[in-house]
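Example record

One chain of 211 residues, shown exactly as stored in the release files.
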Amino acid sequence: MLRVIITDDHPVVLKGLKEIISEGFDDVTIDVSSRGYELLSKISNNDYDIVLLDISLPDINGLEVLKEIRKKKRKLHVLVLSMYPEENYAARALKGGAQGYLTKASAPDELILAVRKILSGKKYISSVLAEQMMLDFESDTEKPPHENLSDRELQVLSMIGAGKAVKEIAEKLHLSANTVRTYRARILEKIGVRGTNELIHYAITHNLGEQ
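Predicted structure tokens for this chain:
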């Protein structure tokens, strides 16, 4: 029996994903979670074959969850499903230990294909992402500045891009306000912009705002 757990904080998305997986596999049990820490608790106490993981969660970023999964259950398969464009997060997710990355705009058939391929021991990326990675490999074009950010810095940038204040970011990430300000200063330096307004503009322009 295939054991799947889906993590997403949107009930409609959860329902849709459950229906797709149920229709795509004959013998499957599906568990759900709406928070990152809830998922980590469940995988510590239960055995699953694959996790469908959203990046944008209300309590902890999906990339951070992915790191914790790799510490707890190194052999557990993870397919990241996100609203974020592939060019912004797919490489980070794969580098962090995910076996695949899909946007939520992908067709149901592609989701089933991705799950089957990952369960067979292979990695899955869409044809669009594969082509983009090949173009990046062949091109001498410089990468955008945000690709030089750490995962945490990118997370802070995405929250700034969504209009969140320092205090709000600090509370959500369980950090001090001074630590968030330090991250913001590093981001400003690495991206080469001045002030929060320019950071917000940069995040929006590059589709990095938290969703």
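Notes: The beta strands are 2-7, 28-33, 50-53, 77-82, 100-103.
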